[in-house]
TrEMBL record:
Protein name from the UniProt record: tRNA-dihydrouridine(20/20a) synthase
Annotated positions binding FMN: P13, M14, M15, Q66, K135, H167, N207, G208, G209, G229, R230
EC number per UniProt: 1.3.1.91
Family: Belongs to the Dus family. DusA subfamily. Belongs to the dus family.
Keywords, alphabetical: Flavoprotein, FMN, NADP, Nucleotide-binding, Oxidoreductase, RNA-binding, tRNA processing, tRNA-binding
Catalytic residue positions: C96
Source taxonomy: Bacteria, Thermotogati, Deinococcota, Deinococci, Deinococcales
Amino acid sequence: MSPRPPHTLSVAPMMDWTDRHDRFFLRQITRRTLLYTEMVTTGAILHGKKHQLLDFSPEEQPLALQLGGNDPRELAESARIGADWGYAEINLNCGCPSDRVQSGRFGACLMAEPETVARGVEAMRAAVDLPVTVKHRIGIDDLDSYEHLSRFVSTVAAAGCETFIVHARKAWLQGLSPKENREIPPLSYETVQRLKQDFPGLTIVLNGGVKSLEAARAHLAWADGVMIGREAYQNPYVLALADRRIFGENTPAPTRREVLERMFPYVERMLAQDVYLSRITRHMLGLFQGQPGARGWKRHLSENAHRPGAGMAVLREAMSRVPDAVLDARPEVDAQTAAAH
């Protein structure tokens, strides 16, 4: 089976969630799924602690850096730094609706300024040889017509962007909180599908509301890729069969015990660097979502991982709260996938 494009399946950049510890954890579940950093602002990169913001483990690759900003020179310099750091892609955030992002005039409000986005993309492409991509909404506030969306994409594509990751829900910048905007207004997959029909030469990746590999595969009948967000964080084992079902790998999916045992050396390494255990394990709480023992696992970590001196014993004790049958169960491959191999 031939390799699939790199954007076939990815995990969305999510503030306070997709940090390096979460990405390393997810990488123990799926080797092929493209991962993204949290959004990092150009100001933070240019004037902040670069190592703290940008460091990652080689095992996290393929890994994309998501930038927040609007100034072409700052975007170009930040992209250059990201390329030197070893990232595989630079992504520009044009979808976040938070007040902090709006006050900096970037994120979703950039959808009202396609020319500004185009200048930023052009500057980043001139600065790096990496793919420069854009993640955006289908609209914002009253700028929610398909004509506006089409103009945004065509303007940015003319600057050289070939990949658009489209969150199929418009952003409300006034009147709704970002949390409320996760559910309101309704998703419109039809709008993203129309975009793909009208721009067949572009890579169009669907984002928003995808909660299973089965749903992702259905969308891949027309989309070039699918990005999974909150479900991949709250129920990370949903990705266990991604390498087989989406990318055509023959390797068996890891059991949850194998995932955890792969994490042990990393956790020990981070503990030796004075990283609190809870900084890592907070991303692992959903590993047993819907399984016997999930409550005991989460409770033990939540009550103990944050304590000073908490170490591997806490993690192993949390594992002991989960039945062996759950720890060692391997997800089933559906008949269609099995037949393909």
